[in-house]
Amino acid sequence: MKKKKAKEKIKARSVPFSQTRTRHASETAEDYVEAVMDLIDETGECRVLDLARFFNVSHVTVSRTVKRLNDQDLLLTQSYKPIELTEKGYKLAKKSKKRHEIVLDFLIKLGVDKANAEIDSEGIEHHVSSKTLDAMKRFLK
Amino acid sequence: MKKKKAKEKIKARSVPFSQTRTRHASETAEDYVEAVMDLIDETGECRVLDLARFFNVSHVTVSRTVKRLNDQDLLLTQSYKPIELTEKGYKLAKKSKKRHEIVLDFLIKLGVDKANAEIDSEGIEHHVSSKTLDAMKRFLK
DNA sequence: CATCATCCGTAGCCATTGCTACATTTGTCC
DNA sequence: GGACAAATGTAGCAATGGCTACGGATGATG
Questions:
Q1: What is the CATH number of the domain that holds A63?
Q2: In the Cβ-directed half-sphere of A20, how many Cα atoms lie within 13 Å?
Q3: Residue B120 contacts residue B91 (beta carbons within 8 Å)
Q4: B7, part of any domain
Q5: Which residues contact A1 (CB under 8 A, 6 or more apart)?
Q6: Which of A16, A69, A85, B54 fits as disulfide partner to A90, beta carbons 3.0 to 4.6 Å?
Q7: Domain of B79?
Q8: Does residue A21 approach strand C to less than 7 Å at its CB?
Q9: Residue B78: how many CB atoms within 10 A of its CB?
């Protein structure tokens, strides 16, 4: 093993890789509260099937996820009733939406067409630190 | 139901989420082949435990994922032997690394400090379309 | 108020990504 | 060549997120 020094440095790089499962779970939470907020805002209420159509998944997937987010105190649900946001969920939704808008506007100003900007901003928004968000804000000015 | 029109428009928005979900599937593959390439380059070989330390997960998780990527013809593995890249895996690794570098350089030029740029570029790189990548390249010039 | 369509919940399947605990292989050192 | 440590594999559990199939709840309409 000739390059031992190099191997010793490897561990340091694990920092950027947060646990994929955990990360995906909080991405879902952000997407859901944001969608619930938008749907209530635009249509007056948010139903399981609205979310299913919004995310293009089955109502079963939505139902299970909504139940989990209810347990996490982000949403309020009752069987066969519209979905509401908790205070905590509403705060997260506003923060996510704000960040999403900044990323979207940023990509458009960077010269990306609207369709691609919308797709990419959806994926990117969950991986943007406050420092990067600040840099995007500066660029927008 | 007064705001029916608004509800009818919801379906159209599912597109970005479908794309994001599809990308999640290949994220792991890209991270792994890129890591394997880097580890071979820097230390001469790539072992299961090297990847475990690199990603900060258990060797079991790595072992299982490596087996799957072997089935997908991206990696070559034999029990208790170093991990190698296939031609297909090497091509994907080079492409991923290139994209990763562009995103990282882009964030730094945007004014993000190196530490945050490294973390964010790792998450962002998987959600950048070719259009957005082109826009980043233009910005770098 | 009965019926029927729509909405939603539950059961139960699969894949991915995490883990611990335990078994096996490999390589090194005496 | 035996023993021991390190590396790797296997078994099996949990959480998340996808699905279909089926059944119960709700609300609108006759």
A1: 1.10.10.10
A2: 16
A3: no
A4: no
A5: A7, B44
A6: A85
A7: 26-140
A8: yes
A9: 9
- Considering only CB atoms, A116 lies closest to which of B7, B20, B132, namely B132
- Residue B3 inside a domain? The answer is no
B30 touches chain A (CB under 8 A): no
Does A111 have pLDDT greater than 80? yes
**Residue B85, phi then psi, degrees to nearest 5:** -95, 140
Distance from CA of A88 to the nearest CA of B (A): 23
A99-108, A111-120, B6-15: least confidently modelled range: B6-15
Domain tally, chain A: 1
Partner A contacted by B39 (CB < 8 A):
yes
Q: Does any domain span residue B92?
A: yes
Does a structural domain hold residue B8? no
Residue B11's Cβ-side half-sphere holds a number of Cα atoms within 13 Å equal to 3
Instruction: Name B76's bridge partners.
Output: B84
CA atoms of A119 and A4, how far apart (whole Å): 43
The model's pLDDT over B96-106, given as tens digits with 9 standing for 90+, comes to 999 999 999 99
Q: What's the pLDDT tens digit per position in A35-69?
A: 999 999 999 999 999 999 999 999 999 999 999 99
Encode pLDDT of B5-34 as tens digits: 565 656 667 788 988 887 777 899 999 999
Q: What is the pLDDT of residue A51?
A: 97
The tokens describing B89, both together, are 């895996």
